[in-house]
Amino acid sequence: MNFLSLFVLIPTLMLLAFMPCKNNMHAIRTVAVTGASLLLMLSIYTVVVFLNARAAGDASPMLFMADTMWYPSLNIHYAVGVDGISVAMLLLSSFIVFTGVFASWNMTPQPREFFMWFSLLSIGVYGFFISIDLFTMVLFYEVALIPMYLLIGLWGTGKKEYSAMKLTLMLMGGSAFMILGVLGIYYSSNAPVHTFNLLEIAKAGIPLSLQYYFFPLTFVGFGVLGAMFPFHTWSPDGHASAPTAVSMLHAGVLMKLGGYGCFRIAIFLMPQAAHELSWIFLILTGISVVYGAFGAVVQTDLKYINAYSSVSHCGLVLFAILMLNETATTGAVMQMLSHGLMTALFFALIGMIYGRTHTRDIREMGGLMKVMPFLSVAYVIAGLASLGLPGLSGFVSEMTIFIGAFQHDDMFRRVFTIVAVSSIVITAVYILRVVGKILYGTIQDKHHEHLTDATWYERLAVVTLIVCIAGIGMYPSFISSLIRNSLSYMAAW
Amino acid sequence: MDLSNYLMMKQEMSLLVVFLILMVYDLFASENGRKWLQPMGVVLFLVHTVLGFLPYATGTSFAGMYVSGAAEVAIKNILNVGVLLMFLQANGWLGKPESSFKRGEFFMLTLLTLFGMYLMISSGNFLLFYIGLETASLPMAALVAFEKFQKNSAEAGAKYVFNAVFSSAILLFGTSLLYGAMGSLYYDDLSMSLISNPLVILAMVFMLVGLFFKISLVPFHFWTPDVYQGAPTTITAYLSTISKGAAVFALMTILYKVFGSMVFEWHAILWWVIVITITIGNIFAIRQTNLKRFLAFSSISQAGYIALSVMAGTPMGMSATMYYILVYIFSNMAAFGVISAIENKTGKVNMTDYNGLYKTNPYLAVIMMFALFSLGGIPPTAGFFSKFYVFMAASAEHEYVLVFIALLNTIISLYYYLLVVKAMFINASEHPIEKFSSDGYMKLSLVICLIGLIVLGFTSGIYEYLNTVGFGI
Questions:
Q1: Helices B37-53 & B10-28, crossing angle to 10 degrees?
Q2: At A490, is the pLDDT very low, low, confident or very high (cuts 50, 70, 90)?
Q3: Band of the pLDDT at B445, cuts 50, 70, 90?
Q4: Among the four A191, A418, B83, B141, which has the fewest Cβ within 10 Å?
Q5: Pick from B334, B333, B332, B326: which is nearest to B465 by CA?
Q6: How many A/B residue pairs have CB atoms within 8 Å?
Q7: Residue A458 belongs to what domain range?
Q8: How many domains does chain A have?
């Protein structure tokens, strides 16, 4: 068996291992930490083997491929394989899952059920990133979506039922577009036998007249998950209502499924249509970037601020992908990683702060730096990463994106790049506003004076994420060397 | 008379044997001995089901009246599995004092309708088809009105009789027009000489309408919610899965074999019928509070999805249809099984009664969730696979617009399926359904359903087998 399948197998075994746990918190934690650590080790192993293989001169688009026939009559395979981008995404997912387990250390009620749904979500996420067969991608995509409903509806806060339903239905609506696009790709590719295999379809190509239909469908389908304007409205409500670990996983990884899907399916398979139609989506994602940032400025709930900031940052991912050149796409992958880690850190910190102060309203908080210095400093670091301070991951990714975007010499793209760049300023506004309001100044609520700082498991989660963010910021060439070969075979540029 | 004709009818024969054994036993059994009817019925039917999987002869007999090909045998086996599940679920309901003395009638009536469905499926002549249809309809009305002292059940029975007779009459009128135009009732003769002219189109429309009544496609669905609500839950499950599956298969054979040359005409009819069926079924399901009525509307919209792959008119469409019917039987049987288990113990069938079910009866809630996810086409249940293949079959014929409408409708359907999931898992209740344990038969049937819902999709063998037996226009 190919070792990539372990990425699906381990969460499946976790799911089964949770079943006999009843409500024994100790057993649940043991299973969760073991599984998450195994996944983390597995993804680090994958990175190492991948880099070795690339160093040894293996330049094929996908490595470690394995192919098992599943439905012969429909030519559906269980096919796995990774390139640099998927490896980066696997690494990101493992870090988020690992820290997510620690962020939900004291999950109540029904901890076993929470972790079972959490494992199902992980199955979907990992499965999506390792698949190179469109059918299994759709399958895993939907497997990743449906647990969100109960995770938010049961363990969420605020108007959780409304948010859960809105999120599920909107994302499923996206998948309706996407499934139609996938069926269209299957039937219209020039491959001698109808196939779902990404590489075979890319090699055979799709007639341009049909690409005009199926490119927008797939791009919109995944764009919904990537929070593209005007389909982003699920994101603020969903993130605000979700429990901490779910917000982390959702903003950190699930939204990346959207960007990854847009790149891997829409642009990789239909490059000509992408060239012709990218202007429509550039306008929409440009709006996402700016609108999300402005949205964050006026919010008063910490989670809403972050959710809108996610809309802005994820919009930037799609914006960069649509620039259709190597530099911008490298930036997009970096931004996916950077935003994933950064948002996960934000949501983890917000969850920890909320767990202590029982409010997320920034007007009711202040001077937290004095009572919980560790969490506050971590929040400042996350904020600085988000507004693009050099040395942290946000800077390198946004810089790469804008350089790549500005390489186009047509007026339209340059103007939109400048518009998108302006979001950095707005980001600084809402980040510094929050930092100044809740961390500095006087303590607003007397009860806040006696709050405790982070516990060991919270520190572990936070430190892990900060190290990763700083790591990307200090040593970005690691990421670009990881994905370089994976972009050169793209036909789009 | 050449007795070898009967060799083709292996499944009908063994069904009749089961029927006769049960009838004779019921006649001579004492009051106390009647309770053995349940295990006997299950075991005998199991034997019959297993016999159906043994190697069979294919071909036609009685001069083309009766056709038994691989597809016919496969769909009969699928229906057998569903009936077996239903027999397992019936025990709790039949064991009640007010219906226990009618156990024998239940088995006999069910087997008779199944016999009628076999004839519908295997007919090669409209005369036999009509006999099968009537054999399947009239005992069904008796089953619907089984709890005759309950107003709902009696009313449902009356409604079913009227609609069954009405639709049969329409179908018969269509058949007579066709006979008038073509001079034959044999499928083979008709398919060879059929040319599209106004009279034939009129005949086809009448016949389709008659069948649409059976499958409860909109706008011929008005009887469905009332009958489903009034009938005993086990019978509702039977109506919504087995009866519907058989009628869809019959529709498919008639469209492919007889009206194959008029594909242009019936495509246009089916296109619109599918769009309104899926949409209306979904929209009406949203506001239902009674779960049986809720599943009635859900099954109306499911019928639209089944018709989607019928419309493809290809071997792939046929195998997707049969696979969809199989998965649909498992999903609906699981859902109705849970409803009937709860109804037997507590008499509650409203959605609000299910609030907090997960806390008290976690297994039932999980099975119900799987069933609803499967109906909604959510992986990892088999419903995802069956829906995807239906869409694939329709897309292969470039019906992208229709597929898109159907896909958008899956979102609406997901909304109301999630409402039930929400009631069971999220809503809190002051008076949840108390913890209880069902009888062994019910447990067995629910476990089989659950395993089926997971295994049917991930193992490709069954679909691949169905793919070898399907035929197109």
A1: 170
A2: low
A3: very high
A4: A418
A5: B326
A6: 80
A7: 3-488
A8: 1
